[in-house]
């Protein structure tokens, strides 16, 4: 590096230059509060809000072009210092170039249209300037990228939990004339939203009472759903559970190393003399058969879901049961075929040594009995039967029972699902989502909004950037976030449900938990440091803080859980 480049390097990384670059980034981000629709008003309540101050055309554009020039100079200096070869290898700098070019092009369009453009797309990419100039945020994104499979598996489990219980709920509770009941379980999107609200908020009675008032036993469904969702899925993120898992894994590793040998988990496969039977056995013991079984179970659930969606508005007597009955019969025959070939390939003892096979066998026998009952009672075709009055159980009740067992059987795929400075990141997401929502949902509410109005939530809207940020923050932290979802779905578009649920998942579930994880990680490091210092008899006062309340699992608890593990078989 020559003297000129060295002096440029020192000047670029000087405090004055870096402060100037940070100021340009801050000003560029803060322009959203002044740009149309302006947030320069005392209140965001549309009932009492005065017309906000609107900057003249060219005012914000002049400031923005100065910031873009600063960013272009920053890019040029970085490219000069690292050289062209390194510049081409840097994805961040290439992205920096693309974002600056795109922003300048959008700025030119805005000026040429005399500030009368409907959308300012460049506002969505402004957080990239903050992201690109922060090494801490780059490291954070890299860490998040590494944990995406684990985060995705948790979301997949949550989606599967909601979807299956939605189908079971729609099958379990027949259509009635109860107006409140229609409000929560009228169709598939409404039922999904109701159970999501039930899982994420404390207003369980709002969803449960309409069904509970009809039958006392209906509360069992909601209790099981809440316990699995809140206690089962949510507890996986608790600190105590994480510590027990870590200690259990370490202890299991030493147990495996110190044991005399491994006990055989499953009986040996039966031996066949015929080469043809041996080849068939190899085919039916292949992992592909389990994948095919899961695909068929998923296809069956999708067929049931389609039937429920198409017949959600029809009464019991108007529904066509012939097609769904034939479809279920075909899938049940496949389930029986799958069970028989597994028994042939593994043998009775080998087949029953798998818990999933016992689960499948029990449900397959129940499905076969119910299917035979339908065929002998109603025969085919049975269009002349009254589906709600014939037999000990009506045809609709038998079909509901079969469909619920098929949906319950789909739980077999759960064992195959492997559950494997954030303030800046949260700010970036708030900025992007606020701009998107403000552009698409502003001034959609023109009528009285029921619960939204009763709660006095009028100031929470998407009419300007500041109000959009507060609304998204409220959704992230308040308990009854479904009030916003309901009103925008009612007077806007049904796709607003997807928007609000996506924001709630990414903000309240993902980013807040990541922020808590950072705090816990720091506390854990402090605890380890304090433990070492205690062991060294130095600095005793550093041990007095709250992390010591976390209890370590006992030896008996670890051994008990190891002995109950389905895939760890040790003998001494």
Automatic annotation (TrEMBL):
Membrane topology: Multi-pass membrane protein
Keywords in alphabetical order: Membrane, Transmembrane, Transmembrane helix
UniProt GO MF annotations: intracellularly phosphatidylinositol-3,5-bisphosphate-gated monatomic cation channel activity; ligand-gated sodium channel activity; voltage-gated channel activity
Gene3D superfamilies: 1.10.287.70, Voltage-gated potassium channels. Chain C
GO cellular component, one term: lysosomal membrane
Annotated localization: Membrane
Name this polypeptide is given: Two pore segment channel 2
Organism field: Cyclopterus lumpus (Lumpsucker)
């Amino acid at each position: 590096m020559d003297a000129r480049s060295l002096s440029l390097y020192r000047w670029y990384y000087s405090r004055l230059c870096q402060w100037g670059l940070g100021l340009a980034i801050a000003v560029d981000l803060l322009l959203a509060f002044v740009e149309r629709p302006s947030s320069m008003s005392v209140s965001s309540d549309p009932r009492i809000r005065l017309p906000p101050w609107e900057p003249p055309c060219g005012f914000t554009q002049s400031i923005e072009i100065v910031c873009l020039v600063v960013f272009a100079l920053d890019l040029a200096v970085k490219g000069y210092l690292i050289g062209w070869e390194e510049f081409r290898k840097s994805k961040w700098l290439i992205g920096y170039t693309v974002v600056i070019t795109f922003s300048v092009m959008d700025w030119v369009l805005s000026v040429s249209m005399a500030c009368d453009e409907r959308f300012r797309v460049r506002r969505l990419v402004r957080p990239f300037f903050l992201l690109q100039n922060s090494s801490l945020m780059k490291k954070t994104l890299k860490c998040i990228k590494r944990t995406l499979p684990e985060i995705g598996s948790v979301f997949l489990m949550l989606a599967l939990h909601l979807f299956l219980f939605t189908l079971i709920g729609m099958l379990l509770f027949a259509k009635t004339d109860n107006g409140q009941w229609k409000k929560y379980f009228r169709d598939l999107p409404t039922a999904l939203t109701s159970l999501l609200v039930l899982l994420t908020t404390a207003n369980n009675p709002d969803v449960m009472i309409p069904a509970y008032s009809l039958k006392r036993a209906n509360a069992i469904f909601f209790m099981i759903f809440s316990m699995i969702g809140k206690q089962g899925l949510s507890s996986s993120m608790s600190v105590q559970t994480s510590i027990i898992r870590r200690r259990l894994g370490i202890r299991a590793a030493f147990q495996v190393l110190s044991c005399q040998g491994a006990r055989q988990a499953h009986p040996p496969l039966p031996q066949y003399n015929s080469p043809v039977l041996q080849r068939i056995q190899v085919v039916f013991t292949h992992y592909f058969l389990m994948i095919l079984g899961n695909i068929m179970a998923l296809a069956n659930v999708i067929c049931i879901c389609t039937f429920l969606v198409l017949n959600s508005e029809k009464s019991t007597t108007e529904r066509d049961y012939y097609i769904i009955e034939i479809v279920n019969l075909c899938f049940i025959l496949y389930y029986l075929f799958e069970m028989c070939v597994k028994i042939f390939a593994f043998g009775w003892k080998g087949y029953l040594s798998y818990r999933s096979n016992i689960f499948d066998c029990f449900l397959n026998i129940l499905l076969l009995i119910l299917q035979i009952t339908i065929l002998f009672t109603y025969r085919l075709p049975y269009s002349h039967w009254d589906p709600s009055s014939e037999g000990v159980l009506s045809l609709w009740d038998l079909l509901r029972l079969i469909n619920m067992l098929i949906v319950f059987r789909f739980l077999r795929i759960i064992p195959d699902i492997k559950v494997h400075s954030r303030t800046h990141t949260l700010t970036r997401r708030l900025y992007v989502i606020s701009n998107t929502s403000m552009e698409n949902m502003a001034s959609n509410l023109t009528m009285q909004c029921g619960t939204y109005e009763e709660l006095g939530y009028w100031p929470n809207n998407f009419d300007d950037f500041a109000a959009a940020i507060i609304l998204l923050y409220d959704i992230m932290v308040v308990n009854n976030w479904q009030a916003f979802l309901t009103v925008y779905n009612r007077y806007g578009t049904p796709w607003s449900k997807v928007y609000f649920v996506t924001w709630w998942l990414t903000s309240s579930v993902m980013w807040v938990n990541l922020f808590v994880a950072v705090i816990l990680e720091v506390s854990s490091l402090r605890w380890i440091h304090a433990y070492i210092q205690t062991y060294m008899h130095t600095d005793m006062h550093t041990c007095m803080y709250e992390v010591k309340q976390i209890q370590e699992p006992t030896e008996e608890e670890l051994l008990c859980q190891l002995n109950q593990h389905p895939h760890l078989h040790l003998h001494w």
